[in-house]
Amino acid sequence: FFLIPSYFSGAAGVLVGHPFDTVKVRLQVQNVDKPLYRGTFHCFQSIIRQESMLGLYKGIGSPMMGLAFINAIVFGVQGNAMRKLGRDTPLNQFLAGASAGAIQCVICCPMELAKTRMQLQGTGEKKSKRKLYKNSLDCLVRIYNKEGIRGINRGMVTTLMRETPGFGVYFLAYDVLTRSLGCEPEDPYMIPKLLFAGGMSGIASWLSTYPVDVIKSRLQADGVGGVNQYSGIMDCVRQSLKKEGWRVFSRGLTSTLLRAFPVNATTFATVTLFLIYMREGEECSIQDSEPQSVQLQPLQPQTQPTSL
Fold it and tell me: What is the pTM of this model?
């Protein structure tokens, strides 16, 4: 039952946030010797002018296909990990979130590879003269046929390095913020508080691992023109630092943070409200069937979802 709210909360987030993600990827991987974009706003303008509004939505098929499964895996694993760990402590919130982030990389890595390749296809062209990939699925099939399993998992190590601590921070920040703000079900301001906690958790998560994301994007984009520029993670780091300095690790950060707040605010608020609703329904049914034998506890805010 959890796939439905996961999909709709995630789909709304993707539709709002994908243009920002396209800008982020373009800024992260552009050639510093011949830059196409001067910054976030100029990148938005250029894509719309040269490729139309649809240019901002290149590669959207990939996250739309995988988001329901990713959300379900993340929130499901996190909830189960919290039950196994027992005590609801900040450390356990981090560990449960980190385990969820690591497991969903199996889907996340190939999905982001296809997304990145599609976002870079036909850069600066309203109608691509030569389309290498028809869509996200065709992209993965072609990469698999050419490079095998290793090809569609390009960037897996950097994805793990980003997602594992990133999701740990994500759930830790959300738990701390919801407790600090007092997100009780009877609070008339509960929804704005949940939105704020979710949005700020997303920002904290991205800030904690953003440099790794830059390297991941560069590795996944490498070879698009037929030439591989990097031999591995450390080679990518060395070349990037040598050419662009430490500022390279903040390329595209502005658009990422602009995207992070609304996307994560809607995702976390939707999931939390859905789980509170389900818990209330379960408690009511138990109370109706066994009024004498069951003593209900006051409903506490669901800060760690049991089943993203």
Answer: 0.85
